[in-house]
Specification:
With about 180 residues, this protein is of the alpha+beta class. It has six helices and four strands, in the order βααββαβααα. Helix 2 crosses helix 3.
Amino acid sequence: MVHYRRNLLPGGTYFFTVTLADRQSHALTENIEHLRASFRRVMIAQPCDIVAIVVLPEHLHTIWTLPPDDADYAGRWRAIKPGFTRNLIRAGANLACNAKGESDLWQRRFWEHTIRDNNDLARHVDYIHYNPVKHGLVSRVAEWPHSSFHRYVRKSMLPEDWAGATSDTANEKYGEPI
């Protein structure tokens, strides 16, 4: 078995990308309430601060800050992903299973990056909020409903017209984080 090296920093802030196995699926946005329910259940049992999040049709990006004595982000993902899958099955979704009888809804792994400093955090929050524009789902960040961008606007942390309309300059500025 392959063992991945994960940076485990109690109280750390992490950027994640979590993806469905079928990159053509729209299961996350079409079932957003089931995804939210899974997140709520896990966040009650294992609280952490969701700094930013965006949910797209087949993947999501989020930044979490864990409690000071806690580095178990993997355990949270091990609960969120199957929780969402169970919610879908209970709702009547017919999901494909592998030879072990497990659902093949999610990619098995996830991408994780430890946030290094405030500049790194700001770049990743911008990336998260701009992602629906980057993927051509909307022309303005404010048009995408499944994003913490709206919380940032309510708290006056960002203006509603942040990043403006789609442009090559915006794509360069808010594109892939380094």
